[in-house]
Amino acid sequence: MRLQKARIEGYRSIRKPLEFVVEPSVTVIVGPNDHGKSNLLKSLLHLNSSNDFDQDDLNWDSESKSDELPSVVGTVELDSKSKGFLIDIENRARKKINEKINERDSDIEDDELEQEQIVPENATSSPEGGAPATPPQPPAPTTTESDFEDLPEEPLDLLEADHIPDTITLSRIGLFGELEIEGLEEFQDEVQNEFFDYLPRFELIEPITKLSDSVTAEELKGDENEFMRGIFYYAGINPNDATTLFKQNDRTQMQVSQASDVLNETLKQSWSQGQDLQFRLTHDSKEDRIDLQIQDPSVASRYVRASRRSSGFTHYFSLKTILHSRQKDHPANSYILLFDEPGLFLHLSGQYDLLQVLEALSRESQVLYVTHSLFMINKTFPTRHRLIMKSEEGTTINGKPYTGRWQSVLNALGLSLTGSILFANHVLLTEGDSDPIYIYAIVQKAVLAGKVDMEINSLAVMSTSESKNTDTLLRLLLETEPVPKIAVVCDGDKGGKDRIKFISNVLKDKEIPSKTLTTDTSIEDHVPMIKEIYVPAVAAFVVKVLSFLGETPPNEESLKDKLLEDFNDKFDKEDTVVEISKWTNDVAVRIGGLKKKPSKVGIAREYATRLIDIDNREFKFGRRGKALIEWLQKELSIPTTHEVKESIMNE
């Protein structure tokens, strides 16, 4: 089961109703500190039947409404497994009801038959004048009338799969409210009660400050050692009953050795990236501790510690093990994992690794995490992000923070993108300010639509404006350590060719790949779906500009039709469009009514928003756009998402 959306009101800093859509795999909540990110995650914990509200959960300005606030409501999608479970338990309940109906009807028939057999009053003596005959007595009842109360008149039909709802609603309303299920009203009461145990469990994982791979019997009992609790569970030992193992003797040594065998076998079955490692539990008799050691083929001289491995290994292995401990301590059929600032104590490169770890975890469980780090934003999947802010209304949320080159996020975090190029492994330098917007949008949509497989979180695209800026940036990047993969792309006009000529010495000397676009074309001429996305974006931007200036704009739909008509008259095919920027400047003034040419950056942002928002099945790459992105991935050696995950987990 997956959470589709949530609505929260009157919960801590969330005063007004806050509703947001949840992605099927990973949802990222971005925002500054103390703006309600953690409160949002914690509110979802109350969709567990065992997590009641307490007084601190009620928003301070809502204290007079404790009968209806706090309120947490979640829409949950039922998968095929949960639908099958519902059908089974509902039909089982209906069969029991039908059995009672049959029993009731059978008793009624027996009563009617007995009435027919009762001797009339005037037939109380024998014909010969002997003793009166005793009337027949009905058998003692085996059931009572109360057994048949509230039964329907007719037997119930068994439930078919098409009668199962696609979603249900979980809600907890009011300070003393209990968790309720909506959407199963047609099911038997006992079925609804039984389904509570089948609901997904929400688990909150706090930041991992330090990984402990050594523990005492007393430490093992606490939640602060969930990692080692998970290790014990993997080893077939219940950590709640392991006290006697910590005193080293011949018996416990054998038990710990056998547990190590189980640990290795279990991890090899469930973790493909750990196939070459050998795990070993050992006694530290001086302090009555048990340690976890790892034998790594790449380290010949000693055992290694999980706490000293790379960030990718540590986070994947530790999170996987902690979650295993949670699942053993709190069994459920499925889990929704909530991570509060998961990269808080990590170096920037470690945060990048963590993105891939969370991706791997999302294959089995839905993941939501909150962050205030720019480097925990997953640029490969922009639509997963939500921006959370605090205003006079309380905590609010923006469902599309990726529009306008993430400007709303950057403003909220007090950051700019200028420094991000220094942390990139792959850098593309372009000419105009609108070029990075187009390139990011095209790559992101192509990844979402499954047209390319590219991990772009380590990619930086930066405009350089003038030729001398391109030369300066190239030399700056070449002096960094390690030197990133660099490529340069320029327009196909005279300016672009002159730029390549200006930096030709450094390109040749450092073997930096470059590309000049088709003659007289710019990035705009290479974008996918020009008719479907670009031309409507121009119309929308013109209308916005005129409205902002206080002028009466034309109808957007009408303007779009006029621009498309003019476009069709001007150009034969989308794949042969040349100098569409000049055409845009002309029609924005001549048809749209602007007094001067429009902003290229503004149109690019409008295009990027619309491209990301279209259904992935409707996306058409186009010959030029496809060729450009394939060149980009090849020349910058940008890995696939699968390659990145494998490399990080194998570190």
From TrEMBL:
<dbReference type="InterPro" id="IPR051396">
    <property type="entry name" value="Bact_Antivir_Def_Nuclease"/>
</dbReference>
<dbReference type="GO" id="GO:0016887">
    <property type="term" value="F:ATP hydrolysis activity"/>
</dbReference>
<dbReference type="InterPro" id="IPR027417">
    <property type="entry name" value="P-loop_NTPase"/>
</dbReference>
<dbReference type="Pfam" id="PF13304">
    <property type="entry name" value="AAA_21"/>
</dbReference>
<feature type="domain" description="ATPase AAA-type core">
    <location>
        <begin position="26"/>
        <end position="375"/>
    </location>
</feature>
<dbReference type="GO" id="GO:0005524">
    <property type="term" value="F:ATP binding"/>
</dbReference>
<protein>
    <submittedName>
        <fullName>Chromosome partition protein Smc</fullName>
    </submittedName>
</protein>
<dbReference type="InterPro" id="IPR003959">
    <property type="entry name" value="ATPase_AAA_core"/>
</dbReference>
<feature type="region of interest" description="Disordered">
    <location>
        <begin position="121"/>
        <end position="150"/>
    </location>
</feature>
